[in-house]
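Protocol step 4 of 5: obtain the predicted structure for the target chain.
Materials: sequence only (see below). No template structures provided, no constraints applied. The aim of this step is simply to have a reference model before the mutagenesis design in step 5. Sequence pasted as it appears in the construct record:
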Amino acid sequence: MTPPDLESTAPDPESHQRQSLVDRYRLQTWFLGIIAFSMILFLLFQARFILISLVIAIILFAMTADAINAFSKLRIGSWKITNWLASMGAFTMIAVLLLTLSALVISQVNAVVSTTMGYTDQAIAAIARLAAWISPEAEQMVETSIRSIEVSGYLSTLAGQASNLLSATTLVILFVGFLFAERLWFNTKLENLLHDKAKARRVGRIMHSIVRRVNHYLLVKTGVSAATAVAVYVLMEGFRLDFAGPMAILTFVLNYIPSVGSIIATILLGLVALIQVPEPATALLVFVIAGMIQFVLGSVIDPMLMGKALRVSSFGIIISLAFWGAVWGIPGMFLAVPIMVAIMIVCSHIPAARPVAVLLSREGLPEIEEASHVADEPEPVRQAAE
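Step 4 output (structure tokens):
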């Protein structure tokens, strides 16, 4: 007869089989997750042109939602601005603005390409002078290496990429137009899709939170970037340097890339100054002043205006920049932060994905408002239906 203590410690074949099935299920889940992630990554890379245009269109559409709702409630005497008229006005404004910016960028790129060829020798000499601080042999080696580069080929590629901007702008305008056309029916579609008005309202609150925080981030970034671009333009005009307009536009665009963009813009400005002025001390002065402008506006004014609207991890921003930059290139770096904010907010409302939101947030607190406060705020889809 088996002792009782031996019976209690004897392995249970049925329990062992259940544990084996659980381990197998987990392994299959991990493999399926890896396969799904690989397929999504492949689709993100292959369809990047359309997806980038779609994301930009969604951001532009979301930025004008509150303005449309405000205008649709205005009355001029007995005449009321309808939601349809406000939407048409917003769509026209977005289309005109995008086409104007595209034409401005293309014209500036063409001006830079046509003018840069005259500065080729000066640029080579300036960069070689920097290498001369190491040794005379380094100066000669750097100059020889740079002269072996086909600058004209890169400039032609740059001009071709600028021309593709018009195609992307047209696609973004089309996407924005279709989003405005579907705007009035979105609330009804959301309720029919979820088959639950409570869930539809909850999804609407999540979307409103994403739109509000991304809009605040873009508004602050646009203001700070514009102020930085104006300061750079005044700086280059004060030192009578060429390319003041293109460098101001480039600074405005690069400042949308957190942390990295301002550094790149400052270095490029210093190189442009070094190429055009014979005295390295003057170029160094331009570089220092540009760095001070970037520091004051980017590291002091920007955080003050941003407040708690962008409570995301700095390390998470760098990881997001690296990932979306690898998948979508430079446009992905511009969209990295808005996408990261959206992912953090969505994950904070999903219990299984909440650890992701905690990791992406700055203090481990992905929400910046109380649930009651969020519940009291109107959803953009309900405002669109009014």
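Step 4 remarks: The CA atoms of residues 72 and 81 lie 5 Å apart. Residues 200-309 form one domain.
Proceed to step 5.
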